[in-house]
Amino acid sequence: MAIYTRTFNQEDFSTPRKAADTVKRKALEFGADAVGIGNIERWAGAPLQMDPKQIMPECKSIIGMVFRVERGSLRGIEEGTYFSNYSAMGYGGITYLYMPLTVINLSKFIEDNGAEAIPMGHQSDWRGIDNEGFARENYSRPVREGQATPDVMIQLRIAAYLCGLGEIGFSKMFLSPQFGPRCRVGIILSDLELEPDPIYNGPKLCNRCMACVRACPGHAFSTEKTVKVNLGGREVEWSDLNMGKCGFAFVGAKHSGVEQKTSYLEGNPESVPGEWSPFYRKPHNLYNTGQAVCGARGCTRACMISLEARGVLQNTFRQKFRRRPEWRVDWSTGPKYSKGTVFRNKKAGAVDAD
């Protein structure tokens, strides 16, 4: 028996159009839900620490891929009964497992045919800037004069926009015409020249309805202060998101202003659970960062509900998402456990809470 191996240089990459068509078909085959291509020229003027050419100086093309967050992974939080599924399956599972496998396999396919490819399935925790774009002091230094410090972070939502995959909404969330905010983004950098797709110019997705602003439990969105950037020759604007407020509400925490005997969030002695959290203390992390107790109440769920009501998304459903009144937890009162809830009694074993 002979050794079995992959075949090399079998695809017709003779023209940018043929290569792009083949690569995009493979991306869908490997698991992406949508795929688009941007040429490197669209990143001209990118900040030093976000410039793809700092990673691959010969980069010619960036392949952007959308991976849907299943609507059903938000169902448990919408009902208030199953929070870990969104963090595990709709968040960490996609970001750390499913998406990396797809971009790795597509990168292997490209490299099988003689071009170099860098798979990026999520942003590395090693990045040289924080989540507001500022360099981390005393962390790393450039290895050559004029270069960025490691690690460069390519802004994935901007990459998706420049690859023609959709819009950036007022919430700063990336909105795809298929799924709205219900998606994650993976990219590949390549020195292969691929025919680029036009920047999205389809039906308007974000109409500034401000559902995200009203529903955000952390009040993280400013309606007055915005960020304006030029992307691919177009002006794009979004709310100047307060990341501190977002991060605090994200894990279910609320400021009380008074030191607590037992705080909700470790390291924040005056933190208490917000009315959007049913937990006495913040649950432990899943997949390092998956801890979305707020369940993207404003930026994803409220936005998705608005987009679906307008009928602008391609992925449609037989039933509307919100089928019961939105819940809130009243932490000023004691808990009322439903019949059938079972606790362990130290003396008598298991007892039923009526």
Low-confidence stretches: none
How many β-strand stretches? 12
* Total number of distinct structural domains: 1
**Amino- and carboxy-terminal Cα gap:** 68 Å
Helix content: 10-25%
Shape annotation: globular
Distinct helical segment count? 8
- Give the percentage of residues in beta strands: 15-25%
Structural class, judged by helices and strands?
A: alpha+beta
Q: Spatial order of the strands in the main sheet?
A: 1-2-6-3
Nearest-angstrom radius of gyration? 23 Å
Helix and strand element order: HEHEHHEHEEEHEEHEEHEE
Average predicted local confidence, pLDDT: 95
* Main sheet: strands, sense, barrel: 4 strands, antiparallel
Explain briefly what this protein structure is.
With 354 residues, the protein is of the alpha+beta class. The chain has eight helices and twelve strands.
Show the helix and strand layout.
Elements: H1 16-30, E1 34-39, H2 52-55, E2 61-68, H3 75-79, H4 84-112, E3 117-120, H5 156-162, E4 167-168, E5 174-175, E6 183-190, H6 211-215, E7 226-231, E8 234-239, H7 243-250, E9 253-255, E10 271-273, H8 297-310, E11 341-345, E12 349-353
Antiparallel strand pairs: 1-2, 2-6, 3-6, 4-5, 7-8, 9-10, 11-12
Can you describe this structure?
With 354 residues, the chain is an alpha+beta fold. The protein has eight helices and twelve strands. It has helices spanning 16-30, 52-55, 75-79, 84-112, 156-162, 211-215, 243-250, 297-310, and strands at 34-39, 61-68, 117-120, 167-168, 174-175, 183-190, 226-231, 234-239, 253-255, 271-273, 341-345, 349-353. The strands form five sheets. It has a four-stranded antiparallel beta sheet, sandwiched between helices. The chain has a two-stranded antiparallel sheet with strand order 4-5. Strands 7-8 form a two-stranded antiparallel ribbon. The chain is globular and about 70 Å long.
